[in-house]
Design brief:
Elements lengths: L2 E7 L7 H11 L4 E7 L5 H10 L4 E4 L12 E2 L1 H6 L4 E3 L5 E3 L2 H11 L8 E5 L3 H12 L3 E5 L3 H11 L4 E5 L4 H7 L2 E4 L24 E4 L8 H9 L2 E3 L1 H17 L5 H13 L1
Parallel strand pairs: 1-2, 1-3, 4-6, 7-8, 7-10, 8-9, 10-11, 11-12
Antiparallel strand pairs: 3-5, 5-6
Amino acid sequence: MKTIFGVIGNPVEHSLSPSMHNSAFRKLNMDCVYHAFRVAPQDVRGAVLGAKSLGFGGLNVTVPLKEKVLELVDADPIAKEIGAVNTIDFKSGVTGHNTDGIGAKQALEKHNIGVKDKRVLLLGAGGAARAIAFQLAHEGADIIIANRTASRAIKLAQDVRSVGNVIGTGLKDLSKLVDKAEILINSTSTGMHPDINKTLVTADQMRPELVVFDIVYNPVETQLLKEVKKAGALAIDGVDMLVHQGAESFRIWTGVEAPIDIMEDAVRCALKC
């Protein structure tokens, strides 16, 4: 009998996780299958406990449920710190993890980019920004969080400051912030389909030595990354983070290193269709 894995959220119809994980299961000849399950916030307790009772191997959790499941799981230290869960493991109880931050870290490492003592400008102050900020702070980065609503960036910086050097601010002096940064990470939805022509930063604000990482993956080449190429800087797209956070979930569930190249091919193929 196949072991079932899945992602819960609302909506989940366009999730790329089934394509990504099922490609990995096929490659490794594992008798497993991964499905997407639409779950409303009021039904999350029944969904998680039901999956445990039915013998699921594990779950991914996406919006708007990442914070809501926290009270249902035994959260690991990273998930507790971030205040959100994106991976649930049923091997010994109901354990919650958050792999978003490590996914971002490994996406940078894929391109031989380390963050220790680097000046990182993180755009956005939402859930993804929170996971990335904590991870990079632990890695020793010097972080400036810039958000349209400055108070949210300041609050997030205060939370993360317990583990690293972090400042929060608004977008008023964005050009100056970009000029001082060595790594720029966009964690906002700016440039995401259908608003594909939008960007917070343009080529004339960038230097060739800047590294720019956009976590948006639909489209793969966002307007921001088009601007990066014009500036002659290094562009990292959101597929890398998606795949690496998924690979970490896969490892947590199965104890097996994920076939990352296969998973990436599946995601990029799905995005072209």
